[in-house]
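Quick start: what a row looks like.
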Amino acid sequence: MYPHGILRITAAAPHLAVANPMVNAERTIAAIEQSDSDLLLFPELGLTGYTCGDLFATDSLIDAALAALIQIKRHSETHEKIVVVGLPCSVGGSMMNVAAVICLGEIAGIVPKTFLPTYREFYEGRYFRAASEIDPETLTIDGFEVPFGTDLLFNTGAAKIAVEICEDLWTPIPPSSRAALAGANVLLNLSASNETIGKASWRRDLVRSQSGRCIAAYAYSSAGPGESTSDLVFGGHCLIAENGNLLSESRRVGDALEPAYCAETSVTCDIDLQRLMHDRRVVGSFDDGAMDIDEYRDIELHAGSTPRPMKEKLFRRVDAHPFVPDESDELEHRCGEILAIQTAGLIKRLSRLPANLTLSIGISGGLDSTLALLIALRACDATGRDRKTICGITMPGFGTTQHTRTSADRLIELTGITGECIDIRDLCLDSFRALGHSPLGIAIDESTTSQSLHEQLLALPDDASDLTFENVQARIRTMLLMSRGFVLGTGDMSEQALGWCTYNADHMSMYNVNTSIPKTLVRFLVRYSADHHFDGDLRQVLHRVADTPISPELLPPAADGTIRQNTESSIGAYELHDFFLFHFIRNGFSRDKILYLASHAQFNKPFSADEIAETLDTFLKRFFANQFKRNCVPDGPKVGSVSLSPRGDWRMPSDADPDAFY
């Protein structure tokens, strides 16, 4: 019904005429006609106004409200949108505050308000009766039997819609909580919430938290400033949240923006139903409370309708860098939180070790080892441990460039840790001889020296490759580190996802603080630390590291001494891989869905559709092929919502067939 599970919702508060339902119906219809949304939500008692007072008991207002509802119903014959409006409704001998769900020329159902506020400025108990067990199951409206009750769920495609009204949300157990356990994933609230100092923040928290608790979308439309201002002012605050995240909100009275007054407000967002379904699948405790839920009546909307066309423009932000904190007021707090989690993990592990035990880190002058070093410094400083117990070992090999070598040496010097340099080329040459291996096709014998081999390597073409040549260097480095004490791992989550590491080499350590930090976040944190925690020469060196092309430096440099082995040139941009990693692991999306989202993301550089698709195929191929490496990674702290730890978040067979995922 909705391609990729994208459902467009508008929450609107049109300009209101108090006690004039026909004018309000016309304005509601105008808002419907101006929108391309699949679902439109309007405020509580929006056809009459919330502030009619004792006029709610008059026949004239009741009849006019019903006529306005029928007018909107008949207009809905001209479109396929779902419309939800609020009005007073005569039920038996009582008046009730209700929401009407309208679709395809029919009133699909009417939902009454469960909880009536009758305290402070609210007097709803004076005018209305709350929903109860004595309510009829249907009402006759315009000659048709219409389902009536709080037990109605409205189905359209993958969306299952539940409705509640204003105060229902502010209670300890909102009706929407029970509806969500019955399967509702789109929760609607028609509201008339007046503005007082600080109330908007609490309203925002309620909407966001209810969407999170229910793992659902939550749309909220509140009455606007056209309501009577005899005693109160209503702000027209409209909000849409999805699983704990506020997607967007409208203007409102009191938001300190210009113009200060908006007669009508609205907000439109695209809800991702596939994401919600995935999250409910993986949160096993969600359905545990469903056993005590009463039965609901399901009402089908759009039965037999054709699928909607693909939405070319999305009304939701697709973050190109989902692991990286936004540039917002919370930026410093979020970065501090990430670094603190990494540091706390290492402090606990160090607390179980002798105080004088050396903490060994292989310092390459690259991003990952730099971040690990910064965490080690924070851990030592926080616990009073001497920085000299950190041993930063540089191990230049056949692919090391002067640029990264200089960065590594300066990091050791400026941070005050113990430094050691071991040239691994002779050890590697001995290994090549023992293996009977010709590195990159170059014949070697007892007369070959590491320097002569190095000179021959520099003359090789740029596309020369030799996996054994690379792995020997990586394993020699790990052997040297492991022989010197407690080894702090440096590999990041992006490398784990892609298997971009040598098994039982840089893949292994005693503890890895970077294990759930993706590459895009590593770079960001190094730059953030440089700008916020260091100054002078060390700040400059950290920015130098962050600006260096990503490379394992296991193949010879170019003839001019620059890095030849550029990781992103080989496997694609980490910016893309981290995007794919997030949506594949966190959201469980298909290849087509990930490509669709990528087409709406603003990456740091433009990528063609073919390049994105090719890189995604590389990601999927390497992800499936390298689970065996992830099944035996060292301990390390989970930091964000995605982790590949086989002991925690991600358990997957190493020999799974990837065909169904392409």
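That is the whole record. The CA atoms of residues 181 and 289 lie 7 Å apart. The chain has 20 helices and 20 strands.
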